[in-house]
From TrEMBL:
Belongs to the iron/ascorbate-dependent oxidoreductase family. GA2OX subfamily. GO terms for molecular function: gibberellin 2-beta-dioxygenase activity; metal ion binding. Pathway: Plant hormone biosynthesis; gibberellin biosynthesis; Hormone biosynthesis. InterPro entries: DIOX_N, IPNS-like_FE2OG_OXY, IPNS-like_sf, Iron_ascorbate_oxido_reductase, Oxoglu/Fe-dep_dioxygenase_dom. One of its GO terms (biological process) is gibberellin metabolic process. The keyword Oxidoreductase applies. The lineage of its organism: Eukaryota, Viridiplantae, Streptophyta, Embryophyta, Tracheophyta. Pfam families: 2OG-FeII_Oxy (PF03171), DIOX_N (PF14226). It catalyses: gibberellin A1 + 2-oxoglutarate + O2 = gibberellin A8 + succinate + CO2. SUPFAM superfamilies: Clavaminate synthase-like. It comes from Gossypium mustelinum (Cotton). The keyword Ribosomal protein does not apply. Residues 168-286 form the Fe2OG dioxygenase domain. Its EC number is 1.14.11.13. This is gibberellin 2beta-dioxygenase.
Length: 335
């Protein structure tokens, strides 16, 4: 299996910029301003003091690590990730590969209970950890989406959050596991210039509204910033943080803010640390038949409608027909 490596002849620019870390317990108007600025500049920020308990996160991490520690044959009992189940190296349906294995789940609590029998030897423990985690991060995503709507001065402050609160929401929960690279050199991996680097999860944007991601203490996530290098962008590593959640603006939030927020391009790299990395990603998505178009306040003669109205079903189908790194929103440009 060939895993893409960043080209040694055309090295990509990596820059250590300080990305925004927002304290959600600070004064509301301050938080709102920081959230808006981060979404406009990067489409990415981290949140601390978010109210999701350490216990909920730890229980989910333990269940995730327990699953990936199983022999391959047992993990495959979860079924193939088409759409929900276990996947290894292959990402999506169009030939993308990465140094990653993953477990994909819907977020409906009953479906999690049902699936947990094929996933865990202690299904009750597994489903209670996942349901507790999903409920907590959905709440966090709603809170953040309401801060965004308020900051954009949209009258209905639940315009974004109501889509993922809907009982028919199409949100996804995904666990990614990146085994360490076992690198043989005579350097005992002490000289950083010997660090091997390969792509765990290639460059892409998330198609949904908002992603809430937590990883363990191993780095690897990088986000693309256009701030200093407008033409191609630079890769900015996101250092692991003991308590923070990462928040990504997804494609349909870019469309629903009429281009004011930017859907962030990101990727996960794997370096030859001795420890594996695990990330837990919640992707908030609306019901399939939701018509996606910005609230009236965000469309003005000076800022005409950028994308035609489309349903999440249409957008999801378009995404699934494309490669991981392909841009998709331009297919929905208003004429
Ligand atoms: C190659 C692909 C994998 C993906 C579906 C797609 O066709 C393009 C978007 C990819 C992505 C990125 C964010 C999430 O991890 C994901 C579950 C999603 O909704 O869109 C994945 C899809 C996937 O792995 O199936
Ligand atoms: O593992 C990560 O940090 C990124 C994963 C990701 O981008 C995804 O699952 O869409
Ligand atoms: Fe992603």
């Amino acid at each position: 299996m060939v895993v893409a490596s960043p080209s040694p002849t055309h090295p990509e620019k990596v820059q250590f910029i300080e990305l925004p870390i927002i304290d959600l317990s600070a004064e509301r108007s301050k938080v709102i301003n920081l959230v808006i600025k981060a979404c406009e500049e990067y489409g990415f920020f981290e949140v601390i003091n978010h109210g999701v308990s350490h216990d909920i996160i730890t229980r989910m991490e333990e269940q995730g690590l327990g699953f990936f520690a199983k022999p391959l044959g047992d993990k495959q009992k979860a079924g193939p990730a088409t759409p929900f189940g276990y996947g290894c190296k292959n990402i999506g349906f169009n030939g993308d590969v990465g140094a990653v294995e993953y477990l994909m789940l819907g977020t409906n609590s009953l479906s999690i209970v049902e699936r947990s029998y094929a996933i865990s030897n202690d299904p009750k423990m597994f489903s209670s950890a996942v349901n507790g985690y999903v409920e907590a991060v959905t709440g966090l995503a709603c809170e953040i989406l309401e801060l965004m709507a308020e900051g954009l001065r949209v009258q209905d402050s639940s315009v974004f959050s109501k889509m993922i609160k809907d009982v028919d929401n199409d949100s996804i929960f995904r666990l990614n596991h990146y085994p360490p690279i076992l690198c043989n050199n005579n350097n005992n991996n002490k000289d950083p210039s010997f660090l091997a680097n390969k792509v765990g999860f290639g460059e892409h944007t998330d198609p949904q509204i908002l992603t809430i991601l937590k990883s363990n203490d191993v780095g690897g996530l990088q986000v693309k910033s256009q701030v200093d290098d407008g033409d191609h962008g630079v890769w900015v590593p996101v250092p692991p943080h003991p308590t923070a959640f990462c928040v990504n603006v997804g494609d349909i939030l870019q469309a629903m803010t009429n281009g004011r927020f930017m859907s962030v391009r990101h990727r996960a790299m794997v370096t030859n640390t001795s420890k594996s990395r695990m990330s837990m990603a919640y992707f908030g998505a609306p019901p399939l038949d939701t018509c996606l178009t910005p609230p009236l306040e965000l469309v003005t003669p000076r800022k005409p409608l950028l994308y035609r109205p489309f349903t999440w079903d249409e957008y999801k189908k378009a995404s699934h027909s494309l490669r991981l790194g392909d841009s998709r929103l331009h297919l929905f440009k208003a004429t």
